[in-house]
Each structure stands twice: as structure tokens, then as C-alpha cells.
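Our consortium's second objective concerns turning raw sequence data into structural hypotheses that experimental partners can test. To show how far this objective has progressed, the report includes one record in full. It was chosen at random from the queue rather than selected for favorable results. The single chain below, 132 residues long, was entered without modification.
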Amino acid sequence: MSVFFNRVERVNPQHPGTPKRWYAVLKVVNQVAEKEVAKMISDETTLNRKEAEMALDQLEKVLINLLLESHSVQLGDWGSFHLTCNSQGHDTREEVTADSITKLNIRFTPGKQLREAIAGANFVPAESLVSK
């Protein structure tokens, strides 16, 4: 398993007058659809593909409902999801209302097992994807 990256030249936004520098930027090779994930789950379990799809659908519904009820959702050693928000600043406590919230964000905090798994990632330049 490899994580691919591109080499990209960019200006440092904190120091726009300085020369551009080169950075590694991760490359997504492909997006895997939910049905394909369900097939992969069914290949590794006793669930058939439809049952795995239904389980993923239910996980999505339950996760959304719990987040919208202000819960943090921990999925074992995989990690946890919670909501954060961006809001307008005000001078007094009384001025802060629900209308002050400008954006709702979903945050995922990986658990120990996932952090350890991705810490051992093997990085490969994306140019290696091009057949010669």
C-alpha cells in the first residue's frame, strides 16, 4: 500500500514576498463509492453485499442524528466524530445567539490504531503512476 504525492511549488502565504518553495501534496488516486466499500466488507465478513450496504446506510443515518443531537460519536479504536462551528465575535455575552454561527464543521479525531496505521505510510511520488 502506498500514499502518492505530487511536488508543488507554492508561495508561503505567511510570507508572500519570499521565493516560492516546493512542497509535497497528497494525491487522491481514485474515489471508492459506498457500494464498492460494501462489496469489500462483504468479501471479508459473513454479510452479503446488500446487508453491508444497509449497514453503511444505517451508520450514516445514526451518525448524522447523533451529531445533530450534540453527541460525540466514538467508533471503537477507529476514532470519533464531533461538530464544531465558526461564529461571529461579539462584544457582550448577550449578543451571542444561534444567528452568530456562520458555519458548522464535522471533525474526525482518529483513534490510536488508525493513527499508528497511517504513521507507517509508504510515500511514493505520483509520477510513478505514469506507465513508461
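The partners drew two points from this record. The CA atoms of residues 88 and 100 lie 5 Å apart. The helical segments are 34-44, 49-68, 112-119. Both points have been shared with the crystallography group to help prioritize constructs.
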